[in-house]
Structures are given as C-alpha cells and as structure tokens.
Amino acid sequence: MNGTYIAGVWANGQGDWFERICPATGTVNWQGNAASAEQVNAAIDCARQALPAWRRLSQHDRERILLSYGEAIKGRREAIAMAISKDMGKVLWDALGEADAMYGKIQLSIRALHERAGETVDKAAFGQTQLSHQPHGVMAVFAPFNFPGHLPNGHIVPALLAGNTVVLKPSELAPSVTAIMADAFEAAGLPDGVFNIVQGGHETGAALLNGDINGVLFTGSEKTGLMMHRHFAGRPDIMLALEMGGNNPLILWEPADRDAAADIAAQSAFLTTGQRCSCARRAIIPEGRWGDAVVDGIIDRAKALKIGQWDEENIFMGPLVSEDAAIAATQFQMNLSKSGGKSLRRLKRLERGGGFVSAGIMDVTDARYIADEELFGPFLQIYRVKTFEQALHVANDTRFGLSAGLVCDDDHYWATAKAELHAGIVNRNRPTAGASGHLPFGGPGLSGNFRPGAYYAADYSAWPQASQIADTAARLTAIGFPD
Ligand code: NAD
Ligand code: SIN
Questions:
Q1: Is residue 146 in contact with ligand 2, taking CB distance under 6 Å?
Q2: Which end of the chain is more exposed for a tag (fewer CB within 10 A), N or C?
Q3: Is 22 marked active-site?
Q4: What is the number of other CB atoms lying within 10 angstroms of the CB of residue 182?
Q5: How far is Cα 321 from Cα 401, in angstroms, rounded to an integer?
Q6: Distance CA 308, CA 357 (A)
C-alpha cells in the first residue's frame, strides 16, 4: 500500500516496511513502506508551494470546499468505519459514530472560525480598527490510533479553513482511514498539495518534526507530547498544540439512583475498551453501604459487558489496539496488585487472543504506591474515602487534568466540585467520556499545553493581526512638532 500522498499523487514509501495487523482477527490490514525523510521533506515543500494560493483564496471558497469535503465524508461513512474497525478493533457502532463526528466537524469548525478567529471592524476617531487572523503556514498533524479519523480531522479542518496547508502523519497503528480522507478531499476539489500524507512510525514522525514546518498539531500520549515540547523549546515561532492523556477521576457521591451511578462509572471506564483519553481511570466512592452497593453495581456491569469483534451483534467492547497493549495492561494491574491493590475483577487476556481483554476493577485504597499514569485500557481503580473533601483531594492528586466528573444530586457538592476539580472537562451526572464538539477539549497539567482543541481549535489555527486604519495620512498634533 502507498506510503505517501504528495501533491495529490500516491506513491510507495521508501522507508522501512511496516504492517498493521488487526487486533481482533490477526489479519494484515495495511502493509507497505513508510515515508522516508526525503519524502517527508518533499511533502513539506509541496505544502509550502500550495500555501500562497490556498491562503489567498476567499474564506467563502475555502468553506465551500470544506463543506463539500464533509459531504464526501458522509458518503464514505461505512468505508471509514470499516477501515477504523479493522485497523484498531473499534466496534462498528463506535466507528460509525467516529465517521459521523468527522462530518459534524465541518459546520462546527466554520462556526468556531467566525466566532473566534474571524474578522471584525469597528469605527474609530481616525477611521477604523480591524481585527483579522492569519494562517501559520505548513502544519504537521500527528494522529493517535484511538480516533484515527476524527482526531486528525479535528485539527485538519480548522487548519485548512484558516488558510494553512497540512502534512498528516497518521498513526502507524491505524493508517488506513486517511486514504479515504484524501479521496474525500479530491472529490471536494481541494487543490493538490494543500493536504498531504506521510505514513510511518517514529522515524517518519521525527523527520516531520525536523522539517521546515510552522506548527505541530498533536494528539497522543503524554510521553510523545513531552518529547515534542522539549524538541521545540526555544522555538516560539512554532505553533505547538498538544492534546495528551489523563488519569481521570470520577467522584460518585450518593445520588438517589445508585444504578445510574454504576452505569455512569462503567460507561466512563470501559467505553471504546477504555481507549478514550477522557475515560475515567479512578472512581472515588464513600465508605459505607451506599458505596459498597455501587461498587458491586460497577462489577456487575463489567461482568455483563459483551466483548467481541467489531461486526458481531450487540458488542460493547472490542479488543485493545494490540497484543502488546493487552500485555502492558495486565502488567500494570500486576504492579498495582503487588503494591497492595485488591482485585475486585481481574482484567484478563481472553482466549481468543490478540488484543482481547476483559474489563478490570481494583480497589487501591490501601495500596502503598499507585503510579500516576494513564492505563489506556478498560481498568478502573477504586478509592474509598470518608469525606467529600478527601474525595476532591484524591481526584486532584494527579499530574494530569483532562476530564473529571461528579455523580451527585446535591447542588452544593456540585458547586464545590466545579470550583475545585483541576480538569478541563468537569461533568455532572454524565460520563467523563463522550466529548461535545460544541465545547473546547483539553486540560491543564500534563494533559496539554493550554491549546485546547475541538471548538477552540480555531484559536491555534491562526494568529491575530490588529490594525488601526486611516484612509489618508493626516498630520498628528504632538507637542513640539513643527506647525
Ligand atoms: P502516541 O503518542 O504513541 O502516538 C501519537 C502520534 O505520535 C502517532 O502518530 C505516533 O506515530 C507519533 N509518535 C509517537 N512517538 C513518536 C516519536 N518518538 N517521534 C515522532 N512521532 C512519534 O499516542 P497513541 O498511543 O497513538 O494514542 C493514545 C494516546 O493519545 C493516549 O495517551 C490518549 O490519552 C491520547 N489522546 C489524547 C487526546 C486528547 O485530545 N487529549 C485524544 C485522544 C488520545
Ligand atoms: C478522545 O478523544 O479520546 C475522547 C473524546 C471523547 O471522549 O469523545
């Protein structure tokens, strides 16, 4: 399969060979050579050549092309979902939801651009003041495997609308969907060279980071994001937008409906096999009978989850992205167990192999050491606490700050939690996972660098330009100037 898409032409990569093996079936879903460093630079050159014409196009024309891309995405909905499911194992209803989110992103991004990065003109005594926005230039987009279509699309659409050109490096764990995106852009009449793809892993990514780019729009792990932050230290000229992971807390504080609390916790932890950055990793629950019953309810739900291949009937969870991820998840659990965590339901590798695991739950209240790390899988750590203050303290005891939630009927507790929880997404009586495209997405700490995406992606796609404008040059009346 083709490793590069440059100036509208697909070609074989000249870098290392790589394969994408489906974690559900073990079949090879993508194979080919990665883009070499030379090819990455050719993609960047091409994006730079396409930049002047694209940024000079009227806003209306760019929007027209992106709207038409949206329609092309809608027409390829099933193909997009299948490509995602086969590459990384996401169940089909979830992958179809991802395809729908890609379509929905266009109108949302146009609205966001007008609201947040559009043009305004005001009258002034000398004439007028004008606020406008300029594109950065060539943007390198790095995609994660868990939303291999929706998340790069969420950077690419706002970046293109603002007049930037793009080189996309898809995740090597889910490369296939991006060929459908290229096809949709062609169908929409996007000029060649405005959107380019370089397939590959870390070496291809490193070449892109070292190329002549103006910005990096990254979604992925904390480890990679920190590497990029260090890489661009002392480079204020590069727009660096980092969307990273979380160690997200969910406080369950005695709502009347105990079953609803257990539903919200289980969905927060196990949606997309726990492979959403917004998934709850930690549930904080009061000591006592109410808490005991909720914990039992979460365990019951974990037991009942249907696990299987993407196209099987009534499946809630697919596999983890790879066998390696399944092994890493069991090791994470084992380390917690050695540290004194009590297993309430073990995350186990399933007989069908590949990335398949069951959902795990562990009470870590008495554990001696709990690593503040994101386990990207279906595993929930339970903390039992005596007071609400203690619950907030445990929730905020993390270096991350992506999502958090409170399940509680009491308005006073909600007002306190909203004010105190240190996270970019703080929900009440709703799962932590399942973001709204109408809102910004991102958070403090190691979850990003204060460049939230989704509705605020318009902000990092362009820089503001302020102008004071008088139509003719008129004399100024400063003290001491000659008459
Ligand atoms: P990852 O960091 O492993 O990879 C992300 C991208 O960076 C991939 O394209 C990868 O090839 C590239 N990359 C990785 N190491 C690199 C290197 N050394 N040099 C150059 N490129 C490199 O992330 P992932 O495992 O694909 O995605 C899961 C992670 O993403 C989780 O941590 C999750 O929380 C996070 N995530 C965050 C958000 C958000 O919006 N905050 C959304 C989805 C996922
Ligand atoms: C993610 O980007 O990983 C999750 C977004 C969501 O929860 O919808």
A1: yes
A2: C
A3: no
A4: 18
A5: 24
A6: 10
